[in-house]
Amino acid sequence: MTNRKEPSRKTTGLIFADTGGICCICKKDIRHKNGVSADRAHIYGLNLGSARFNPNLSYEFLNSAENLLVICNDCHDLIDNIAPNEYPAERLLDYKYNHIVNGILEKWREYLRNFYDSLDAIPYDDITNTAEASGWLKKEMSIRVNQSNHLPPLFLEKLKKDMEGLMKDTIEDIDLYIFSDDESE
Q1: Partner of 150 at 20 to 30 A CA spacing, among 86, 98, 128, 163?
Q2: For residue range 59-113, what is the model confidence (pLDDT) as tens digits?
């Protein structure tokens, strides 16, 4: 018997949002003027005989966001039909979560650049020194990490560590280039 019930709209929305419009395997842009040209792929196969099928996993899990990724049509064919043995579930999970982490980090970098630029141009009223800027960024980072709690612990820790490193560099730049004159007076 073949299970063909589709994942929920909410699940589909979650996994598409995580992609950033890019295939997590080949990095091809899957956005087109008429929508998205991509497939929902199961990391662990949904049916007996499908690539990476594991009979010990529940049907609910198999159709959950945790077990799905959005990839281009070519990569879907590759992982399920052309070379499924080269793409075990663990490798696909690495692709998926590294892709999500990198997307979050890119948005964090952009936020930090904008934050720095706005301090340089027109200082925030509530931020008059490096310590206040650091406190502001730590709160923002905490919010973003909490929004990413759907990531497995290993990837969440990597995300947090990388975000902290980027934040530290930005705080050093703020201290050196924006508030250095103010604090020396």
Answers
A1: 86
A2: 889 988 889 998 999 999 999 999 999 999 999 999 999 999 999 999 999 999 9
Q: Residues 6 or more apart from 156 whose CB is under 8 A from it?
A: 145, 148, 149
For residues 54 and 178, what is the distance between their CA atoms, to the nearest angstrom?
Answer: 56
User: Domain range for residue 77?
Assistant: 9-87
Q: Six-digit token pair at 178?
A: 């924006």
**172 plus 103 within the same structural domain:** yes
Instruction: Tell me which residue of 170, 87, 85, 98 sits closest to 134, measured CA to CA.
Output: 170
* 173 Cβ neighbours under 8 A, 6+ residues apart: 116
Segment among 1-10, 76-85, 145-154 with least mean pLDDT: 1-10
How many angstroms separate the first and last alpha carbons of the chain?
77
As to burial, measured by CB atoms within 10 angstroms (0-12 exposed, 13-18 middle, 19+ buried), residue 96 is buried
Distances (CA, A) of 82 to 24, 77, 87, 133: 18, 6, 10, 52
With a cut of 80, say whether residue 123 has pLDDT above it.
no
Contact (CB, 8 A) for 63 and 7: yes
Rounded to an integer, the average pLDDT of 143-156 is 87
Q: Is residue 173 part of a domain?
A: yes
